[in-house]
Every structure is written in structure tokens, then in C-alpha cells.
């Protein structure tokens, strides 16, 4: 019997309902946080009293702190909103890069075939060795990129 730990590949697929729910919740949380922060700010009128300069400094500091809290709240909500896209975008990036790393392998394969030695112990051409090295490096990069995408 196969036991699943909920981190295996078939449980990580992103269904449209899950993405929509995550986006909706993230947007609602960000809006709620922003609304609460904006409603709680201090609205002060023009200062006309003798201690107005000191009050203006205190009010300015309070407004600045409130703006900082509002920015942090919006950033937290936006981070929650973008979290599913970051995961899917990372997987897509790795797969695209794996495909691009396969291109030099396909380009150097005819050169490797054309410059192969006549016998296994025969003279090794520099072009053959260089083509083999380039193909090996880029094939490794491609396979490792696809492997990392599969692990995510």
C-alpha cells in the first residue's frame, strides 16, 4: 500500500478553483487591511494654535507611522496574492530554461557526429572534443533544470 505524505507530485497540481480561491482571498485580505489602515489614520486640520509647530511634528510623525503600517499591510496582502504565481512561475522558468539548454546539444550534435574518430583509439580531433564537452555541459544543465522543476 502506497502512503502519501501530501507533498508528493500528484497533490501539488494547481486546479483553477484553487488558484481562483487563493487570488480572491489574497485580494480581499489586502483590501481589508488597506481599508482598516486608511480609516484609522489621523485627519488633522490646519494648525493655528501657538503650539502648532510641535503638534504638527507629532501629527506628521503619526501620519508617517500610519503610512508605514499601511504599506506593510498592502505588501503582506500583495505577497499572499502573488504566492501561487511565484511557485508556478518558478516551475515554468525551470522548464523553459531546460528547453533552451537543449538547443546547444542539438546544434553541436551534427558536428560531433561529423568529426568522430574512425577508430576508438584513433586521433581525437579538437573539434570533436570541444563539441563533446559543450554537449555534455549543456545536457547536464538541461536535465538538472527539468529535474528541479519536477521536484517543485
Tell me what you see in this structure.
It is a single chain. This protein is mainly alpha-helical and 152 residues long. The chain has one domain. About 5% of the residues have low confidence.
- Stretches where pLDDT is under 50 for at least 5 consecutive residues are 42-48
As for the number of domains, it is 1
What are the secondary-structure elements, in order, as H or E?
Answer: HHH
Helix/strand-derived category reads mainly alpha
The separation of the N and C termini measures 24 Å
Please outline the major beta sheet: none
Shape, please?
A: elongated
Helix content: over 70%
What number is the mean pLDDT? 79
Number of strands: 0
Radius of gyration computed on alpha carbons: 29 Å
Strand content: under 5%
What is the number of helical segments per DSSP (H or I, 4+ residues)?
3
Please summarize what this structure is.
The chain has 152 residues and is mainly alpha-helical.
Task: Please describe the structure with a list of short key phrases separated by commas or semicolons.
3 helices, 152 residues, mainly alpha, 0% strand, elongated
Give the secondary structure arrangement, pairings included.
Blueprint: H1 16-39, H2 52-114, H3 126-151
Helix pairs in contact: 1-2, 2-3
